[in-house]
Amino acid sequence: MAAMAKAHGEDLPDHPHGWRRYLYSTNHKDIGTMYLVFALLGGLVGGVLSIGMRLELMHPGLQFFHDSHMFNVFTTAHGLIMIFFMVMPAMIGGFGNWMIPLMIGAPDMAFPRMNNISFWLLPASFTLLIISLFVEGEPGAPGVAAGWTIYAPLSTTGHPGPAVDFAILSLHLAGASSILGAINFITTIFNMRAPGMTMHKMPLFVWSQLVTVFLILLAMPVLAGAITMLLTDRNFGTTFFTPGGGGDPLLFQHLFWFFGHPEVYILIVPGFGMISQIVATFAKKPVFGYLGMAYAMVAIGGIGFVVWAHHMYTVGMSTAAQAYFVVATMVIAVPTGVKIFSWIATMWGGSLEFKTPLLWAIGFIFLFTVGGVTGVVLANAGVDRSLQVTIFAGWYYWFPKMSGYMYSETIGKLHFWLTFIGVNIVFFPQHFLGLAGMPRRIADYPDAFAGWNLVSSLGSYLSGLGALVFFFGVAHAFMRKERAADNPWGAGATTLEWTLPSPPPFHQYNELPLIK
Amino acid sequence: MLVLKRLTVLAITMVAILTGAESALAGLGQPSPWQVGLQQSASPVMDNIIWFHDFLLYIISGIAGFVLVLLVVVMVRFNARTNPSPSRTTHNTLIEIAWTLIPIVVLMVIAVPSFKLLFLQLNVPAADLTVKATGKQWYWSYSYPDNGQFEFDSLMLKEGERKEGQPRLLAVDNEMVVPVNKTVRVITTGSDVIHSFAVPSFGIKIDAVPGRINETWFTATREGVYYGQCSELCGKDHAFMPIAVHVVSEQAFSAWVEEAKKKYARDEALPPTTVAAAQSTPR
């Protein structure tokens, strides 16, 4: 990755070199690259944790963990890391930073220094989370074991040690980081579009980022409030969530999910945008129903704020409240359906070229359909596997642009098939286990659940192998150094970033492009 | 090689599932190996849940199958080889309206039985018996406010404590006992953190929240032992606080109550409706 950054602009005298270039960076491409590297690291740590969980669950009984506390620490850390230190940095910080200015014809972000701080808050945040793994949480045992949802009172009275405090501070920093990023993105998209680039001409990826950052701007402060109340409950004797003092544990859940459900869309909506770009590129056909696609994302984002309590059906809500959340949740299926059918309609009549990014995109559409329809039945189990798939779709699509090198199609496709088959083997049996009554987040399970858990574990090793192939592929592309053309994808790639050299120069659009 | 081995294992398991349909059948009151569906029903609510689940499964399989067919058609008919010159179509008002409206109709079809089920679950009928289940780290306590002032703890049986045939991680020392074919109201609360009281065969799952009383209901239609597990992460031994409900005949239940009154008698009589909220102290 360092080589990727080096490849462009190192010869120019107008920017600092060496570590200063990155630590002090105000360049959206360098910052985007740092976000991507950071996300890869986060994904590596989070992925290792998940393999640890699947190793434990492979057979009944406790094999790897002395007690289930440590298992719960793994599930908690896996969840938080994957959300805050893998998917969000990759999708928004990485691809968003890199591509939004390129796609709207802007020289850089609106607030380049804020861009710098929003990235550098993340390593600090990650460090705090790692520290939380090693200080006392539950009595006599290190780490936060309350799940990524950190429900009170398990996260207050249940965790007397300071681990939860470290995790809260970590989330505060990660939240601040993404709020700053969101402000930056919104300002950039509203004010820095090239002449002629009206809102209704923006590429769908930019639309998806715009929706996402609005969700961040509105949802993250609610999380910040909730975890601040948690912090004062823990340390300063307040009783927001303690019934003995007039508080209510369910208040935390309402606040958490008011953030948590939009967060699900924060993770997936950028993927919608990427899939639209990729599908149109490789079908050599413009996106079908552009406006419908853009406003479907706006609708999904909007409705996403009024469905939070569907994560809380069992807490004892009134019948009317539950009925409302059922309806609101089902309504989301409509704009989601519009998106899926529009993607298919974009490909319909097209001239598909099955390059690696398109494979990932089609894989995503299928998984998202299955995950979406089961989502009508269950909760939202399908999301996590879809996420992994979209990130790689975007990665292969823009890798030639960002690095200036072509990846190997063979390795990319091998990676796709290993991952696609792997994640299906991981998650499909989990539908059966859930139906059969296996609770979530348990380190050991009744013997009847052994069979499907074994299958699920084997699937996770297969997708782990896929991840190794991915890293090999990245290294291979950088060593092979096969130059990528400005537009390696041909006539279908019509967005502005493909008009620039691969990799783009350190500063682009010294003269603003004019959009007809 | 490793991949090959895994694929072989997978293939074998798949074959095992398909041929061993017997073993894939759901057991009564507890999960069975390689089960792919819901547990067998033992209450009217669960009958409804199973019906609704199967109904949805048809619908979503139809939708997923439809999308899959479309994807396959697109990949076969519209690839670079078979269709070298792409069309420029970007709009078709009729089809766009159709794929907005048809899903709405499908959702309304789903909504009707969904609401019937929701109201069936949430409107607790007049109960013959109330059982209070209190979630604690990490066991359940049961009391029977209608049947005397006794309360007892129900702990998971460890290795070596189980009798022949009792399932690991599910069997407990003192089961919750209820009579068959009687409407049982379950009220739950948590004494330390949030737990969740769930028995899949009865189709019930309700959180046990400190400072709050939740209620649900079931009518067990068959005698037997029905197992469930705590379903809200509650700390270290979350996986080890099962729920076991023993459904017995009415006579056996009366006899059990008499015995329980003596066995679990308290030293000092407490008011029967003591709840955890009153016991927990502010930090």
Summarize the topology:
The complex is a heterodimer of chains A (about 525) and B (about 280).
Chain A: H1 2-7, H2 19-23, H3 28-57, H4 68-104, H5 112-132, H6 163-191, H7 204-235, H8 249-283, H9 290-303, H10 319-331, H11 333-347, H12 356-377, H13 383-403, H14 409-436, H15 450-480
Helix pairs in contact in A: 3-4, 3-5, 3-15, 4-5, 4-6, 4-7, 4-8, 4-13, 5-6, 6-7, 7-8, 7-9, 8-11, 8-12, 8-13, 9-11, 11-12, 12-13, 12-14, 13-14, 14-15
Chain B: H1 2-19, H2 21-24, H3 44-77, H4 93-122, E1 129-136, E2 139-143, E3 151-154, E4 176-179, E5 183-190, E6 195-199, E7 204-208, E8 214-219, E9 224-229, E10 242-248, H5 250-263, H6 276-279
Parallel strand pairs in B: 1-5, 4-10
Antiparallel strand pairs in B: 1-2, 2-3, 5-8, 6-7, 9-10
Give the structure's gist in a few sentences.
With 516 residues, chain A is mainly alpha-helical. Chain A is built from 15 helices and no strands.
Which labels suit this protein?
heterodimer, A: 516 residues, mainly alpha, 66% helix, disordered N terminus, B: 283 residues, alpha+beta, five-stranded mixed β-sheet, 6 helices, 10 strands, 37% helix, elongated, disordered C terminus
Account of the protein in words:
The complex is a heterodimer of chains A (516) and B (283). Chain A has 516 residues and is mostly helical. In chain A, 66% of the residues lie in helices and 0% in strands. Chain A starts with a helix and ends in a 36-residue tail after the last helix. The N terminus of chain A is likely disordered. Chain B is α+β, with helices and mostly antiparallel strands. Chain B has six helices and ten strands; from the N terminus they run H-H-H-H-E-E-E-E-E-E-E-E-E-E-H-H. In chain B, a hairpin with a 4-residue loop joins strand 6 and strand 7. In chain B, helix 3 runs antiparallel to helix 4. Classes of the chains: A mainly alpha (516), B alpha+beta (283).
